[in-house]
Amino acid sequence: MFNILFGFPALRVIASAPGKITLFGEHAIVYGYPAIVSSIDRRVYVRAEARSDNEVKIYAKDLRIPGVIVTYRHGEVIVETDYGKTLSAIAYIEKALEITSRYLGTRKGVNLEVTSEMPVGAGLGTSAAVSVATIAAYAKVLGHELSKEEIARLGWQVEKEVQGIASPMDTSITSYGGFLKIVGKGGKYEISKVRVDESLPFVIGYVEREATTKDLVNKVKELRERYGAIIDEIMRVIGEVTLRAEKALINNDLVTLGELMNINHGLLDALGVSNRKLNELVYAARNAGALGSKLTGAGGGGCVIALTPGKQEEVEVAMKLYATLTLKTRLGVEGVKVLVERP
Amino acid sequence: MFNILFGFPALRVIASAPGKITLFGEHAIVYGYPAIVSSIDRRVYVRAEARSDNEVKIYAKDLRIPGVIVTYRHGEVIVETDYGKTLSAIAYIEKALEITSRYLGTRKGVNLEVTSEMPVGAGLGTSAAVSVATIAAYAKVLGHELSKEEIARLGWQVEKEVQGIASPMDTSITSYGGFLKIVGKGGKYEISKVRVDESLPFVIGYVEREATTKDLVNKVKELRERYGAIIDEIMRVIGEVTLRAEKALINNDLVTLGELMNINHGLLDALGVSNRKLNELVYAARNAGALGSKLTGAGGGGCVIALTPGKQEEVEVAMKLYATLTLKTRLGVEGVKVLVERP
Q: Could you tell me if A315 and A236 lie in one domain?
């Protein structure tokens, strides 16, 4: 991978961290209801190799992450993805190195190579995975094994410093892996693990977004201003769907989980955040045998997720007809991990 | 139209009655929440001509109406359309003649010709329109001018006797025309007029049904058994959407009306009664400029309605790509009416 200029092999580690999807509760989380997020088995890999000098070299050629603007307002969190100005992943990597050095009180020269198994900018949490994997790899090169709690906290700090402000959702799920329930209110977050025995087979389909996250969050906000109780009750129902889904996850009751995904999708459609392409994907998946399917994230395009035990091929083929990109994956995989390639 | 065998012209009348759509509240009405129905400006015409003998001749060649089974159970009304055994419109016409004779205590020979501007079996209330127009026409031939109240009541009786059991929804709206709010509970109905100044431009798109009304009502019932409070709350939200829509109708606030249609559609999607084809139509209409669109009736196929001020052509063209049949229409037109063609 690198030209080794030293007479003896340098310490080389590989850290990886998974992408994420929101399984239940997007939009409702802005109004104080819980969301469930999950890791997916598409990972970002950061290979780090100690250098004998103090230089840092970063190889992350094709990894560009859209700029993200996150705004707090009256206790709401608005995450805005800016497709105009794409921020290179480099900003996250540099900040991760800086924050890790500061935290550990030491620094060392390092070569870094970053690669991703996920499309960047599709709402799969690539920037958080890059930040977290970089922290874990660099800490290891510096001779430290950070806990997941430490990595998650430092990762959140990276996102906050790069983006101005950020929710801890993405950096938590990519650090801990599995499934997490998150409740956010007034800028504070409660994060708890949802214990699920096995990872779950999913297909993800991506279509281009027609609107930014900020536009969509504002659209829902305006709808709420116009229709008060109606929208509040839809949010409350989404909250109940999410809590019911938590039980279904714990009981490994996939039929119920699928039905709840379908209900959640209809409620998101009622909020006006679905569109023709997302619904095409949602119904293509169901008609091909998915137990459930829904849009994930802010909507207006982006990803649709489908629960597909025993039907991954069929569902992926059906979704390919409508999607720019599809991927078969599993939900609930391991979070950040570090391997030493060469001592 | 007929061979006139008499030396002088016989009394000849034309009665017409409109079709209908459900604007808001389908499915929720089964659970005691209000629905709003509207007449559409596609009509059934019944030409009636007195005969000098006592014979009755009915010309209704291409007018076949699917058999309908309506069941009451625990205060729920289940309307089942049976595509296997299509009942000829003749059954409704014969029953309408019989009931009108009985009510007025007189009978007379008559030639009847029945034609329809609507597709039959698409959920547009053709059987009610046929029944009501026949009653009005025959009463006139018998020398009586029945009130709309009388016609609606007799029409309901026709549907009940032909089908075994029926709700008064279709026969009321085709008699009174305009917009009606209907609340049904435990087999009793409250029907009130919604006063709307102008008729509203709509496009209707029809696709084949994949499931019967009974299947869909049962599907929702099973979902409610599994997810109790979640489904109850969705029904309550639909009820609120319907009441809010009543205000928007009265205020002629079409933007709000359209948004509420979109919300209602998402909630129906959450109940699992939409499908891929209906959603294609719904989004094709919105993308072509409809202010709002939703499935109407039981779902699983059938009709989508779109509110289209100034955009009827564009929306119809867009919907034609996905629909078996489209029609431009206006909502809230006049109910049953009778004209004397020849004294």
A: yes
